[in-house]
Amino acid sequence: MTDIAHFLLERIEEDEQIARFVAADSPTDETRYTMWATPSSLDPDQLVVAVDYQRVLAECAAKRRIVEAYLEVVDHDSPMYLSAGDYMETTVRELASVYADHRDYLDDWRD
Question: Residue 97: which of 86, 85, 107, 83 has the closest Cα?
Fold first, then answer.
């Protein structure tokens, strides 16, 4: 697995954990847009502002599928996958860019 894919899958898992925490701690059964704040289970000194955790979970699933597609492409040595690999790498770098302030983000991933 590539470093950037591993990094992204870890961030996606963290986002899913927060969304699941929000879902379990939700003060309402509302399944559409809701907004409230709760202490973070990952960092008790921070609050999580919970906005539409269902969308966050859907985004995590979509991001995971993109990363898995990227891994499938880069695992092939065939020349016909080279251009697809370049395109997918650009996509994965863009996904990773939203985590640029994370301590494990590498400057080499910047475009």
Answer: 107
Number of domains forming the structure of the chain = 1
Count CA atoms within 13 Å of residue 67 on its CB side: 23
> How far apart are the C-alpha atoms of 71 and 75, rounded to whole Å?
6
Q: What pLDDT, in 10s, does the model give residues 77-86? A: 777 777 788 8
Give the domain range for residue 47: 3-109
Count of beta carbons in the 10 Å neighbourhood of residue 92: 23
Q: Render pLDDT for 16-50 as a digit per residue (tens, 0 to 9).
A: 988 887 777 666 666 565 555 666 666 666 666 66
The answer to whether the predicted template modeling score (pTM) of the entire model surpasses 0.90 is no
Q: Rounded to whole angstroms, how far apart are CA atoms 43 and 29?
A: 25
The partner residues of 48 in beta bridges, in order of sequence, read: 38
